[in-house]
Design goal:
Elements (H helix, E strand, L loop, with lengths): L6 E4 L2 E4 L32 H20 L7 H10 L2 H16 L6 H19 L2 H12 L8 H16 L6 H31 L1 E4 L10 H13 L6 E4 L2 H10 L3 H12 L11 H17 L5 H5 L8 H32 L8 H16 L3 H5 L4 H16 L1 E6 L10 E7 L5 E10 L9 E6 L10 E9 L12 H18 L15 H12 L5 H7 L11 H9 L5 H21 L6 H11 L16 H4 L10 H18 L6 H12 L7 H9 L6 H6 L10
Parallel strand pairs: 7-9
Antiparallel strand pairs: 1-2, 3-4, 5-6, 6-7, 8-9
């Protein structure tokens, strides 16, 4: 492949990617400026990343060695607190590296990822397998003196000890070496999987050649398809990019069945095209290495190993929950498909509903059953107005105020920044960066990041968080209209941001969203529920032309249809969760992942009209890192908690009950990982979460409990 030297737009400055010989690497400099310092995005470029890592990694290891080799007896201060202080330069470099990887990926950046992945894994291995360091942590963990420490300090000792043990600190030397080799190989494979997926999303598209090819599409999607063709320098009317933000609305509104099939197949075959970007061999190797690692650690499968520090603890508990919701969800899908099939027949056609038909005919059923048209609703869902609505909710629940600022550099012109402060006291809380639009080199989906965690170890440090999305950018001066689903995702990711912004802890490792993976989605999922409150809709769901609030009659129809299509969304997501768990229980027995997917779904009686939300060859959640591996069930697990938690508001004075909001803030949003998450939830709710609220919120039948 021919290497093309390009330039990246960062803020308003064009930065060359030619090699930098500057010894004063900006990436290694302490963040300066307002808010306790901010990333100097106007000074960074790609060529600085590798040299900065060279310095920062050496410094990181030197600091760790100094802690490990301290001749004095281990104390919380000289061991755990020093570990918290260590690695500041490394963390800053990692932050910028992560931003480039997710938002500014390019042909120039790919070799850096390929080179750095095993190096970063090796660094992690050296820290977790440092025998002297672990001995100090272990002594503190077993010491009777730790009872004299604060609860937060005790929690931090426990977390370090359990993390080190989980990563093999107790293994013999030979086993440690094997684990190190596995971790290093996995890091390279994760990188390859991600780069392959990004390549197919960037390079694949479906051409729209005639006016008829646009039939049924909303005006915004038409313009976006035309802009996409222009951006790609194609001599055609338009094209549909290979991202969910293009594909989902096309499948919902296009009248052209053959084109729907073509777009659908493009999207669901990402990573599964038997070409240079095919992910099947890569993910099989990942599964084999994970299984080998788990056995070295003394666990039967990777799933058993990875759930040791999750709320669920054991794979069996996750399967019980998923299977309990699976049955009613599949039953609902069958009813919905029957209604769709009737519309097909009434229209004079005879074909059977296929996966590329589901969204299109589901929308027709929605109109027929509830007199609700997504395009009608979408006219009231302006991205910027909904952003204001999120800010308003944060103010009502947590007394937060968002003020736009222009005195900090950004990494792309699309990015904007707000100062976050306490509405009553005026005290600064942190910064919120917003990067809403899709572009080439940006990974698909939506996410939240913390550029810097809140802490009070050596004085107050403000947090810096971001929300990143992939909305299709509108024409200059035109509002961006989004779907109800996208609006829900917007609120969801903002929930993660609020979790980070609410943090009020001493130690950065325990701050914000650093909780168990199957708990971290709870704060984000509960925030989704405020989108549909009448207060938000009447104030911020304003018509993009008239600025009139959404009519209450339409709000009523939205409410009546709130559980519509819940069967589809539940089956789509839980099928991915079940496959994820069963993959990691099967481990190194997987040879053909596509066959495994097909056979496992058949055993589950997966409706043939639906595909998994993430097919195995494109399942970045579980193959781009270990983050959600054997953990995609977390969304359902957390949604049980969030549905139950929202009931606490309904049992009180409603969604904006100040007393309930304060309990939620004090026991969930602000405490980070300073306490066990089950205990934190009980402190908020007074009991364990119950599944009834989830089943009710999705419109499923709640089974009666026997005494």
């Amino acid at each position: 492949m021919k290497k093309i030297i390009t330039a990246l737009m960062i803020g308003s400055t064009m930065l060359s990617v030619n090699a930098q010989g500057n010894p004063d690497n900006p990436l290694l400099k302490k963040w300066i400026g307002p808010y306790g310092g901010v990333p100097a995005f106007n000074e960074y470029n790609i060529s600085q990343i590798k040299p900065a890592f060279d310095v920062a990694i050496k410094e990181r290891l030197k600091e760790i060695e100094a802690i490990a080799n301290n001749s004095k007896a281990p104390t919380f201060e000289n061991t755990i607190a020093q570990m918290e202080r260590a690695g500041k330069d490394f963390k800053r470099v990692m932050t910028v590296y992560g931003i480039y990887s997710s938002n500014l990926n390019s042909t120039e950046f790919e070799p850096i990822v390929t080179e750095m992945a095993p190096i970063l894994a090796s660094l992690s291995n050296k820290i977790y397998q440092n025998k002297k360091l672990f001995e100090r942590i272990e002594k503190l963990y077993n010491s009777q003196e730790k009872s004299k420490l604060t609860k937060e300090q005790q929690r931090l000792i426990w977390l370090n000890y359990t993390n080190f043990v989980k990563e093999g600190a107790n293994l013999d030397v030979a086993s440690k070496e094997k684990v190190s080799e596995i971790n290093t190989k996995l890091a390279s494979l994760f990188s390859r999987f991600s780069q392959n997926l990004l390549a197919e999303e960037n390079n694949q598209y479906v051409i729209l050649r005639t006016e008829a090819d646009f039939d049924g599409l909303p005006e915004g999607l038409k313009k976006a398809a035309m802009a996409q063709a222009k951006e790609r320098k194609l001599d055609v009317l338009g094209c549909i990019g290979n991202t969910r933000s293009f594909v989902d609305p096309f499948l919902t509104f296009s009248t052209q069945r053959e084109l729907r099939e073509k777009v659908w197949k493009m999207f669901i075959n990402r990573g599964d095209n038997n070409d240079e970007f095919d992910n099947k061999a890569t993910l099989v190797e990942i599964l084999q290495l994970r299984a080998k690692k788990a056995k070295l650690m003394g666990f039967p499968t990777f799933a058993h190993w990875n759930l040791t520090n999750r709320m669920a603890k054991k794979p069996e508990r996750t399967l019980e929950l998923m299977e309990a919701v699976w049955e009613p969800a599949v039953a609902q899908v069958k009813k919905d498909v029957a209604a769709m099939q009737n519309i097909v027949i009434e229209g004079g056609a005879s074909f059977k509903i296929a996966p590329w038909d589901y969204r299109y005919y589901s929308e027709k059923v929605r109109k027929e059953k509830y007199d609700l048209d997504q395009n009608e609703v979408k006219q009231y869902l302006q991205l910027e107005k909904l952003r204001e609505g999120m800010f308003w909710v944060a103010g009502q629940l947590f007394d937060m105020k968002f003020t736009p600022v222009n005195n900090v550099p950004v990494y792309h012109p699309d990015v904007r920044v707000w100062e976050v402060s306490n509405m009553t006291s005026g005290k600064q809380i942190g910064l919120w960066y917003f990067d809403p639009y899709a572009r080439k080199g940006k990974r698909s989906g939506a996410w939240m990041n913390a550029y810097r965690n809140q802490q009070k170890l050596d004085g107050e440090v403000l947090t810096i968080v971001s929300n990143n999305s992939n909305f299709i950018k509108g024409a200059e001066g035109e509002p961006v209209l989004i779907s109800w689903t996208d609006a829900t995702t917007l609120f969801h990711e903002f929930g993660h941001a609020l979790h980070g912004l609410s943090s009020n802890v001493t130690y950065p490792t325990l701050a914000g969203t650093a909780v168990a993976r199957d708990y971290v989605e709870f704060p984000s999922q509960i925030l989704e529920r405020w989108l549909e409150t009448p207060e938000v809709l009447s104030k911020f769901a304003l018509h993009y032309k008239t600025n009139e609030p959404i009519p209450m009659a339409l709000v009523d129809r939205i409410e009546k249809a709130s559980t519509f299509n819940s069967g589809f969304s539940t089956v789509e997501t839980i099928s991915s969760s079940l496959i994820d768990m069963k993959l990691h229980l099967a481990g190194d027995t997987i040879i053909d992942p596509v066959a495994f997917e097909r056979e496992t779904l058949a055993k589950l009686h997966m409706p043939e009209e639906i595909v998994m939300r993430h097919r195995i060859p494109q399942f970045g959640h579980i193959f781009a890192s270990d983050g959600y591996a054997a953990g995609y069930y977390s969304y359902l697990w957390s949604d049980v908690i969030s549905a139950d938690a929202y009931e606490a508001f309904m049992e009180g004075d409603g969604p904006y009950d100040k007393k309930v909001a304060k309990r939620l803030f004090d026991n969930v949003f602000s405490v980070g990982n300073t306490t066990d998450q089950e205990e934190a939830y009980k402190a908020f709710r007074g009991r364990d979460p119950q599944t009834d609220a989830l089943m009710k919120s999705r419109g499923f039948v709640v089974s009666k409990k026997t005494e």
